[in-house]
Amino acid sequence: MDPIISTKLICPEPHNIFIRERLFAFLEESGAKLIVINAGAGFGKTSLVSSFLAWRRIPFLWYQLDQEDSDIHLFMKYLEAGLEKISGNHPRLKTGSPGELKDYVALIINSLSSLSDGLYIVLEDYHQVEHAPLINSLLEKMVIYLPPQVKIILTTRNIPPLPLASFRAKGWLKEIEGEKLKFTLEETRGFFKDLNLSEEDILKIWKSTEGWAAGLKLARYAMEIERKYGLSHPEKTFISYADEYIREEVINKMSPEMVRFFEQTSILDTVEVNLAAELTGYGETEKLLDEAVVKNLFVTRLDENEYRYLQMFKDYLERRLLSVSGEDELKKLHQTAGHLYWERKQKIKALNHLLQAEDYRSLSLVMQDIIPQMIKQGEYEKAKSWLDKLPDNILKSSPYLTLYRAMAEVFGGFGYNLPEEYLHIALKGFEDNQDYYGIAQTLMTKANYNLQRGYGHNALEDGFKSLEYLEKMADNLDTDSKSELLGEIYSIISQSYLLLEKWNESTLWLQKSIEVFKNNLSRNRISFMAREYQFFIYHPRQNLRQALSAFRFASKMWENAGNSHESLMAKINMAIIYRILGEYDVARDLVAACLAKAEQSGDNRAIAFALFTQGQIQRDTGQIDKAIEAFHDAIFLGGTLGLNQLEAAAHHCLSSLYRKAGNITAALEHGHEALRLAEVMGINYFIGQANMNLAMIYWAAGKLAEAREIFSKAREIFIAWNAQYELARTDFYIAAVMLDLGEDNQVINSFLEEGLKVVKANDYRFFFYREKENLVKILKYCAGKGIEKEYIDNILKEWGEDKSYLYKFYALGAFKVFINDKPIPDNIWKNNKVFGLLRYLLINKGKKIERDIILDTFWPEMDMKTASANLSSCLYTLRKALEPELKKAAHSNLIKYNKGHLWLEPGENVYCDVWEFVEEGEKLIQNWEGNDDTNRIKKLEAILSLYKGDLFEEYPYDDWVIPFRERIRELWCQGQEILADWAVKHNQIEKGIKIYKELILKEPCRERYYEELLQLLIESGQKKEALQYYQKYEKTLREEFGVSPEEKIQRLIKEIL
């Protein structure tokens, strides 16, 4: 008898134990007696089991099988030897006849039952002995009588010939197949963790290997070799390793005929039985493919007649085919496949193969059939992508393909560089062929193009021309074709009138369009009409609820028609309307759902618009950092897709945010980019808007002359465009800038009168509310000059701005003083004592302070007479600074002194941010009692926004300030805690994180803030940052106080280490 090879009973030691929690849990928790791991070469069967055993640390018997082990005597001999390593109590049997096999089963089961510990029996590569009936019988009996502490694991490339159905029904069997063995993306990240690869690289490796274990290991090995020896092409090394592995493990074990079949069918994404037979001429296609599935040769059965190859196997076969057969045969195969798919009406697959065959004649014929459907379904990006694959001369030789290319460009919003050229070529081709329907379609598209550029008159002219040509051939068109184009032309004419602000005409043609769609087309086409409501959304006379209903209806109709893109776009427009209506929770949820669906379907255009809308919602709800991120993402995606209009709008929003944040450099950068894109598109409305935005930035930067000049440019554009609303806005801005420049009041008044005339006539009052921060001053000027005084007074009253403060003091952060909205420069205060006295009186609002207390506070080292003289001098200087027109002997209305007491009179014309912050803040916070409705939260946010920094932060060493400063800081902290709790409760985790970071900056040793921050960071997956904050806190405590963080915080960190 053959001697024992001891190494066959040794478990291969894993190079690195990689814990695959998902599969380890399956192996450990399985109550089954038999675990079958069935997959092809390289799926990681051995690695999984060996790593699991090393991790689990439980006794095991490992038996590496090969073909020689088919002999039952040898098989039993190895089992005996393996059991002997574990326990001296083991069976012995000299022969292997069926009769004695029963006795052997009894002996081995009794031997296993005597084991006190659990045991795994691993039979590695069971497919090597599966054809041995005695071994199968032995294993079957062992499974039946196996004691509960013992489990058998089979690794195999084939389904073993055992009564698996019976085992499965009795709960004795658990199975792991190839799909389950594939590494998930998360497992792939863990596998490459120590190599510090980028997320992009990891995703690329995972997709190319499809989680195939051998592929991942080969990729890792190639990278390690590259790093060790400085090789520059790890991808090539990886491919060569993978090819060698597939060749040795799979190809060399196939017949030449079988290899040839797999080579030829590797050009197919999925292999359909009948099509593969016609492509290759191989008769027994299904039998061959089924055999490959059973043997786990990188082939998966998708359904009854369709199969798929593992991507790395497919890639290898394609490389082999090109090397063996050459490029010409490869093109012929693609051409044959293309025509076979076309016959089967599988149009996209036909396009793919004809393109790779470079059969452009057939390709253009297929495109003329399929591209119009893509256009109708709103798949503009896909249509553009396909048409761009054609050589220019082939594309332009077909008027219809050229028109479709223009349509994709115009309707898809991919930019405005090429439509004019395509439209010109298409129109000439149709005219040469006297194709009136083609001419009408081209003119309709041209009208849409002009409409998007803001040329209302040109759009109207093209729309009516299109209508004329359609009517010339009305009798030669089927009803649906005529009605579809007629409805769209009516729609374009309606939108053109709308752009020209001719409301009655626009409404008339809109109704015509709707009637055409209602009467002559299926209901899903009515949804086209919802697009018009986009033009009404921002018009104050429009009923936004009506627009909302239209988009809701449109979304359902598009969905029923199978156009997921247009359905998503309609829902995104619904989110826009909810945002305008101030229903932010609804808007936020809706756009989040749209974004998730768009990402799932890979609809990048919808993703871009959803990101932009999400940014607007976040901006409006105070999530500025998130809004900035969303706008940047929209710009990146919009730029990638050529969505100039969206990209310009996102730059516009960013510039506005940066302007309000005081980052003028960033604001100008994005503002100029918005203007550049608007000029590229040639849309006058956008150019005017971009200029107005730039002017606002220069105004904020104090460059008033430049601001006025740019506002004037925008005004000229809006006059030419007859945009009354924008013209009114610009008039107010110009007037406000002129007021700051101190220019002629008569000219200012004329701008204001013109602007107010338009605002009142069209009820554009909402404009003032949007631009409140910029217009308060000019509206007060209007009221003061009696310009529409009653109308303006009502607005100012609603804002709480009807009071005009003579004095404004800002003490939170940098100390500033304003008289009549003009700042008092620092050099007006003759010395620090004067300035200090003012600060002292301010924080003691209205409190009458004894003269002796003031003398002792400011001049403690002086005698009473000298100190009193200094106080008198300071009071004189202070009054002259604040009340320059006050006569020498007159009494001050602001700084009061009477009967040995001094105070600052808090009259109606005096404002101080500290007073408002403390009084309103304490009233709100001390009576909070868990009442966290949205309105109260907004009010709290407004109060806390007054806190620009510590009280008199430029004067940190005044002892008398410290108690006030600490009280105010603590009040701010309490308010921020409430906001943080509210944010977490409403699942706004990032906002909660941001607040706790701000709190830690103020209070770097307050343990609760660190505990809450670490908890949020860990829960949101930001473990690295959590560790960094812990280390920072630990260092602060150690250096400042010589102590360590509390046990609770230490436990949080231990959980992530």
From TrEMBL:
GO biological process: regulation of DNA-templated transcription
PANTHER family: TRANSCRIPTIONAL REGULATOR REDD-RELATED (PTHR35807)
Domain Bacterial transcriptional activator: 912-1057
Lineage: Bacteria, Bacillati, Bacillota, Clostridia, Eubacteriales
Species this chain originates from: Thermosyntropha lipolytica DSM 11003
Any one GO MF annotation of this record: DNA binding
InterPro entries: AfsR-DnrI-RedD_regulator (IPR051677), BTAD (IPR005158), P-loop_NTPase (IPR027417), Sig_transdc_resp-reg_C-effctor (IPR016032), TPR-like_helical_dom_sf (IPR011990), TPR_MalT (IPR041617), TPR_rpt (IPR019734), WH-like_DNA-bd_sf (IPR036388)
Protein name: ATP-, maltotriose-and DNA-dependent transcriptional regulator MalT
Listed SUPFAM superfamilies: C-terminal effector domain of the bipartite response regulators, P-loop containing nucleoside triphosphate hydrolases, TPR-like
